[in-house]
Automatic annotation (TrEMBL):
Protein name as catalogued: Oligopeptide ABC transporter, permease
Chain segments annotated as transmembrane: 20-43, 165-191, 198-220, 226-245, 276-298, 333-356
Sorted UniProt keywords: Cell membrane, Membrane, Transmembrane, Transmembrane helix, Transport
GO biological process per UniProt: transmembrane transport
Presence of keyword Zinc: no
Tagged with keyword RNA-binding: no
Major subcellular location class: membrane
Topological category with respect to the lipid bilayer: Multi-pass membrane protein
Protein localization: Cell membrane
Recorded family membership: Belongs to the binding-protein-dependent transport system permease family.
């Protein structure tokens, strides 16, 4: 023998590596996943939900820079470092955009920033009680790289933090749909008869209800919130998995290796989980990639309708909802930027699904 015979897994992996768009999509999805996990570390606004508002600098274009006066609070932040990294900082300091400022003795005199050519109010701040280090850090320029929204929040920070919802809802929804779909599809396909008829009736009834309408009904039943949306989306996506698993098991249970397993006295649970399911997972994996993309779109639609992630939580769909009217008001980027983020992530999952389909196709 001149060389080793490659396994089917190795062949599939080799075919996937040669698919440029599949590898590119995988790297893109991995990058978005890392960004969503460490969003608060990467975001310029480290406050919880990136919700630091500065109404005087609302709706500013990308690249806008302003001097920001930060007045330290007397309230001590008792958060630990891990909590700050993954859930944001509880910001107790006061931030004020200023147009000009100067120091006179122990007093800082500043003029608040005002838009549209207006002159802001002039105010004073006593510097007694501040250390030299605190005084030097009171005013610093701040750049909003993607501009600000209508509440004066940093759009870049909201985009980064909002990636967490869109990314993780895919994992939760696909996980829930896999558990339900694999269980019901396996039982229906393996046992057949009346059991199959009952499960197929449930599948057909669920299939006939519009997905968005069913998600809205489940969301209203469970209540508005973060995890409620995740569960609602997952409970509506198991149907495709169940149908695919049922069809695959009906074909696979007639194979010789299943007959041999029955002859050896293995119970049904072991035959299904150890012998049949591992051999039919290729189409299920492709369905999961498509469901990932569908879950992101459904969550964005729910947030746009106002029954998804609730304010002040950052969500790409909610950002479009807040700013879609700005498309005709000369600042379309406020709605286009989160829309492009949704489109890019959905496209990446669809491309990786196509790549997996080609790599797992035993006929090619």
């Amino acid at each position: 023998m001149g060389g080793k015979t490659q396994s089917l897994k190795q062949l599939a992996l080799q075919k996937f590596k040669h698919n440029f768009w599949g590898v590119f999509s995988f790297c893109f999805i991995l990058s978005v996943g890392l960004i969503s996990v460490f969003a608060y570390t990467l975001a310029p606004d480290h406050s919880q939900y990136a919700n630091q508002m500065h109404l005087s600098v609302h709706s500013k274009r990308p690249g806008f820079t302003v001097d920001m006066l930060t007045i330290p609070s007397q309230i001590k932040n008792k958060q630990n470092s891990i909590d700050k990294v993954f859930f944001g900082t509880i910001n107790t300091d006061t931030e004020i955009p200023v147009s000009k400022y100067y120091k006179a003795n122990d007093t800082l005199i500043y003029t608040e920033y005002a838009s549209d050519g207006l002159i802001g109010a002039e105010k004073t701040l006593s510097l007694s009680g501040f250390s030299d280090q605190e005084i030097s850090n009171l005013v610093a320029p701040r750049t909003f790289h993607l501009g600000t929204d209508k509440y004066g929040r940093d759009v870049l920070s909201r985009i980064l933090v909002g990636a967490r919802i869109s990314f993780f809802i895919g994992f939760v929804a696909v996980f829930i749909s896999l558990i339900i779909g694999l269980a019901l599809g396996s039982i229906a396909g393996y046992y057949g008869g009346k059991v199959d008829a009952v499960i197929m009736w449930v599948i057909n009834v669920t299939w006939s209800i519009p997905t968005l309408l069913l998600v809205i009904a489940i969301t209203l039943a469970l209540g508005k919130g973060f995890w409620q949306v995740f569960i609602a989306v997952g409970l509506t996506m198991w149907v495709e998995v169940a149908r695919v698993v049922r069809g695959q098991i009906i074909s696979a249970k007639e194979m010789q290796y299943v007959t041999a397993a029955k002859a050896l006295g293995y119970n049904d649970y072991r035959i299904i989980t150890k012998h049949i399911l591992p051999n039919i997972m290729a189409p299920v994996i492709v369905i999961c990639a498509a469901n990932f993309a569908s879950a992101i779109l459904i969550e964005s639609g729910l947030s746009f309708l106002g029954i998804g992630a609730q304010p002040p939580m950052a969500s790409w769909g909610a950002m479009i909802k807040d700013h879609y009217n700005y498309i005709i008001l000369g600042k379309p980027y406020l709605a286009i930027i989160p829309g492009l983020c949704i489109m890019s992530l959905v496209m990446a999952f669809m491309l990786i699904g196509n790549a997996l389909r080609d790599a797992l196709d035993v006929k090619s």
